[in-house]
Prior knowledge:
By secondary structure, this protein is α+β, with helices and mostly antiparallel strands. It is built from 4 helices and 6 strands, in the order βββααββααβ. The chain has 2 domains: about 5-35; about 45-135, GMP Synthetase, Chain A, domain 3 (2-Layer Sandwich), CATH 3.30.300.20.
Amino acid sequence: MIRESRAEWKGSIKEGKGTVRFGSGAFDGAYSWRSRFEDGDGTNPEELIGAAHAGCFSMALSDILTEAGYIPASINTTAKVHLGEGPAITQIELSTVGKVPGMDEKQFITFAEKAKDGCPVSKALASVEIKLDARLG
């Protein structure tokens, strides 16, 4: 399976503007220097990586829980992508809250750690420190 996205940039790094599009058509948005490094309107690559990571992790955790006999009512994950000097992505903080009938929090944390290590996006981002805060809610 191959997934495709596209980006186009026009102009200089600080005054230019770009667009990113998902191949599926689900998202088409603008990005710029301001939306990436300041507080401007639009998206940025790090925000898109965070969305991909949160989505992948949530699905991986659901799969692991289901295989163990626990059907999650919900898994709500936030990914905070830290952009530091370089610029470089320096850290990703995953925070997840699960509603899983019949499961205790210690089990949930164990399964969440397994999902963090095993989801394809985590594997692709293995050069970055990934922290996890997992709890039942």
